[in-house]
Fold:
Amino acid sequence: MFERYKGGEKALLVHVFFPQESDIEDLKEFEVLVSSAQIEILDIVTTSRKVPSAKYFIGEGKALELAELVKLNEASVILINHSLSPTQERNLEKLCECRVVDRTGLILDIFAQRARTHEGKLQVELAQLQYISTRLVRGWTHLERQKGGIGLRGPGETQLETDRRLIRHRIQVILSRLNKVEKQREQNRQSRLKADLSTISLVGYTNAGKSTLFNAITDANVYAADQLFATLDPTLRRIFVDDVGEVVLADTVGFIRHLPHDLVAAFKATLLETKEASLLLHVIDASDPNLLDNVNAVDDVLCEIDAHEIPTLLVMNKIDLLDDKPPTIDRDENGVPFRVWLSAQNKVGLDFLFLALKERLGKQIKTCSLHIPPYLSRLRSRFYQLKTVQQEIINDDGSFNLDIRIPLVEWNRLCKQEPDLLYLISSNQLVK
Structure:
C-alpha cells in the first residue's frame, strides 16, 4: 500500500533544460516562485534531456541521485519546474520517499495562500480539485480496494470511486456558486454600460507593479508586495480623467509563463473584467532583463481569454531602477500615445499616464455657460464635483454664471439624473 508523503517547508528544486527551452531565466523565476510560497530552498538540481523520461521525467540516474540528496539534506518536498504526469509524480515519490510537487501544484499552493475573498477561495478550490482528480489513482493505490467489514459494506464501490464521486459533487457545487458570482459581475458591468462608464483593466506579468500603480492612482490601499501573485482578488475603483469623466479602474491577477489551464478556467469570472474592458493598461517591469518574454507570456493569456483585440496602452513601470530614464510618453506615427514610462513606487510620471488616458479615452466635449439661480446651488456643487467648472461669476442676486467644459457622456448622464438641469435648459438659462 502506497500513500502520499506529507509535504514540508524544506525543498529540493529540480529543473530540466530542454533544447527548445534552454533559458536560465525560467529557473530564476522558479526560485522566486518557491520563495513566494515561503519555502526554504536546500539545493537546486539541474539536468539536460532531449525529451522527458516516461517513468521519472528526469531520467533514472538523476532520479537515484535525487533520492540520495533527499536523504542527505533531509528534504521534506521536491519541487519540479515542469508539469508532471500522475505516474511520474508517484514514481518519484516512491523512489525518493518524499513528497513531489510539480510547477502547477506549486502555483495552486501559492494561490491558496493568497486568496482572501470568498470568491477567490472558491476559484482556487475549483482549480485544486480539477488538478487532484487526475491524481487519485496514482497517489493512493489502496483506494482501489472496496470497503469491508461490518458497517462498511455498502453500494460495492471502491474508495477511489467514492472519492471521485465526492470530488465531482464538490466541483458542481463550486461551479454553481461561481455562476452566481459571474451573474452578479455581469449585472455590475451592465450597470456601468448604462451609465456610460469606461472600464480600464490593469494586466501584466506577476510582480510587474500593477497593485502599486493601482494604489498610486486611486489611494485604495490594495495589498501590494514584492512577490509573485500578491493579488488574486480583483478590486475596482472609480477615478476621474480630464475630458473623459469617471472611469472604472480594475486591478486583476498577474500572469506567468506556463499558467495552468485549470487556473485560467477557474478564474473565468475574474478575467471577464479584463475581457470586457474599454482599455487595457499592460504594466511591464522596465527593469526586468526578461521583459520581452514576459510580454509574450501575457499576450498568450490574453489570447486564451479572447482579450487580445482590446486597445492596449503599455505602461513601462519601475523606471526608478533604470539609469537616467525620465518619465515620458511614446507616440506612434499618428501621434497617438502607445507607451508611458513611469515609476508607480515613487509616483513619478503619473501625470503622463493621465494625459495618455485622456487622449486614448477622450470623447466629445461640450462647452457652455449656465445661469444657475440661488435655490439650485446643489446643481452648482455637482459641476464642481465633476471638475468641469472653468470660470464662475457670482451675481448680486446670489445666482451663478458658470462656464462649463464637460465630456458629452457626463453631460447626458447629468441630464438624466438632474431634472433641474433639464428645466434650466428648457427655460433658456443656457447662455451658449
